[in-house]
Specification:
230 residues, 8 helices, five-stranded mixed β-sheet, Nucleotidyltransferase, domain 5, 10 strands, 2 domains
Length: 230
């Protein structure tokens, strides 16, 4: 039975989980803005201890690859690459929006995870329900809330911190929309783990060196350099 250690650092939420293919063995979900670099690895080792495991007792690792915070993604991916390479374990790169959508796998309507991208924009994707679960139809994408509203036709379930922040605008523009309850609005490493298992079983190589963050846009620092002509 595959045992997997997962994390997602794409938002201000720090979440780490140890799972097997069927159950969550240990998990933490905590609001920790600007603290990922200090807490991530110690949290991972503490969770492994709680689950009665060591890094050498794992079969794989999984990490959220974004879109999301530039700094958070760099921290999480770099840390998990280091663990994977050091222990000789496969690493699955999991789109963070796919993992958030997985929290709503039983939905009977399309699911749209929405993360706050700041500067008046959101990261989003749209997932359709089917016999085999949710399948991504659109995204990942980034744009203003008005763009997201224009790309949705009919009932939808909105989830994520972007859905919380822009709830009034989304509700006005999408009268048939429903909003996820609070417990299903934040990234969970367990969902990253289960998505990672699915990807690896579907044939993803698990090559840690091939895992890259999904940014979708340039950082604010890069844009300022371009504007300054440097």
């Amino acid at each position: 039975m595959m045992k997997i250690l997962a994390t997602d650092t794409s938002t201000d939420i720090l979440t780490v989980a140890v799972c097997d293919e069927h159950a969550v063995l240990a998990e933490i979900v905590v609001h920790a803005p600007r603290a990922h670099s200090e807490r991530l690895l110690s949290t991972a080792h503490n969770l492994l201890a709680q689950a009665g495991l060591s890094l050498g007792g794992l079969d794989a690792l999984a990490v959220g690859i974004g879109p999301g915070s530039f700094t958070g993604l760099r921290i999480g991916i770099a840390a998990w690459k280091g663990l994977a390479l050091g222990a000789g374990l496969p690493l699955a790169g999991v789109p963070s929006l796919d993992a958030l959508a997985r929290l709503h796998a039983g939905a009977e309507r399309p699911v749209c995870p929405v993360l706050d991208a700041r500067m008046g924009e959101v990261f989003y994707s749209i997932h359709d329900p089917g016999a085999l679960g949710l399948s991504r139809r659109l995204g990942p994408a980034v744009g203003p809330v008005s763009e997201l509203i224009a790309r949705i036709d009919g009932p939808v379930l909105l989830a994520g911190d972007g859905a919380i922040r822009y709830r009034e605008e989304l509700a006005a523009g999408l009268p048939e929309a429903r909003f996820a309850p609070p417990l299903q609005n934040h990234p969970r490493a367990a969902a990253v783990a289960f998505e990672g298992v699915r990807l690896l079983e579907a044939g993803e190589s698990g090559d840690a060196g091939a895992v890259r963050p999904v940014y979708l846009r340039k950082s604010q620092a890069e844009r300022k350099r371009e504007e300054a002509g440097t």
